[in-house]
Amino acid sequence: MECLLEEPFMSQYIGEVLNLPPLLRAVAHWKNECLLKNRSIFSKKKLWTTKNVNILLELYVNNPDESNKDFFEKLKGQLGVNYPDVICLVAEMMWILLLPSINITERTKIENIAQVWEWSGSPFNKVHNLLSDETLAGYANTSIGYNTNRWRELSYLIEITGKLLSLPLAARNKVLNDGWELAYWLEKTPESRRRQFRHILLYLLFPDDFERITSGVHRLKIVSTFDNVAVKNLRKMELWKIDRRLLAIRKQQEQILGTTKIDFYQDPLHDIWHIKKKSSAIDIAPQIIKKEEARVNIINNDKKINKKIKEQMIYARQGHGIYRRKLAEVEKRCRITGVQDTRFLTASHIKPWRDCDTHNECLDGNNGLWMSPHLDRLFDQGWISFNDDGDLLFTDEIVMNVLSVWKIKLPVNIGTLNKLQQSYMLYHRKYVYKNGDA
């Protein structure tokens, strides 16, 4: 199915790596077809209707599944099989929810959308210009929190969609064609304070007035730094007032720097407010060497470990011996660079050696990946990690630019990890990855 998109329009600068216009044209089409005309972006049906959203509220929002199943298992069970159009509506909602993420590959996004759509019993056309690489490339690192809380983000989208569609068309037009009207309107929904999609929606529809920042913490840090206001005081403000402050800061910095090509995730602005770390992602080798020496000393001085185990563990740390042999039984290459000759690869622990609870964990071949040395530095220090779908996660735009310099084309998917690797990777995301608490 072909769809006609509007001509490109101006948007804010977000760096040289990211290409925003195709995505924004797709969102403009979605707003017009779905939110204003109640239609569909992937079919000729009328999916975005008050009736369908009300059914969805009962099936999903008011019927939570508190089991240990994964997101899609729960979602499929909640939706059932009686309302195929409602299922297709959820698939289109997945499209808009996944749209901003640069840390999820285009392939994964399409698979997730298609999976839900096909629960309706209808085939899904994966060849569509709203599913092009350019459209699905994304513009923000939405962090693990956005992914793990996607059931909450979906519930929020359902809630605000229901409220929007219940408005008379003239009132809906007013809200959807004025960014500040939309911001004031969203403030009436208490859940807006906790949901990233609130910020995402405003940026997607009005990129000249709102920032691409999806993190509420980052929004407060930026305003606190530039306006010299305590974060605790900013937390009490209405969200739209934070948006106003961010816009004022942007205009002020454009005047100071003499250019409109500025972005809060690009230097020099990023360096001013982002004080989480002092070392850069490309200057950490000396730290790694020091830590490695310290770890070997800890092994040597541990009287509870017998000599043979000590030798094996030191070999593991130094890139020799039993650990590398065990890793070679599980992994055959660096999954990012494709290098297969393990003489040139680092046997990288997923759950760091220093955190392993047992000697078996230290030497478990499933607790590792072959990595090219420069990537091992990022992984060991928590600058990068991987989600359950194998998508590469990275902490910020600085790391993204480093990967770009290294000719690593984003997004990256390393394929499926086995169950044991996944459990170790869960630890890495939670305790090593620098955005683990996002």
From TrEMBL:
Pfam families: HNH_2. GO terms for molecular function: endonuclease activity. Keywords: Endonuclease, Hydrolase, Nuclease. The lineage of its organism: Bacteria, Pseudomonadati, Pseudomonadota, Gammaproteobacteria, Enterobacterales. It comes from Salmonella newport. Residues 334-387 form the HNH nuclease domain. This is HNH endonuclease. InterPro entries: HNH_nuc (IPR003615). It comes from the Bacteria.
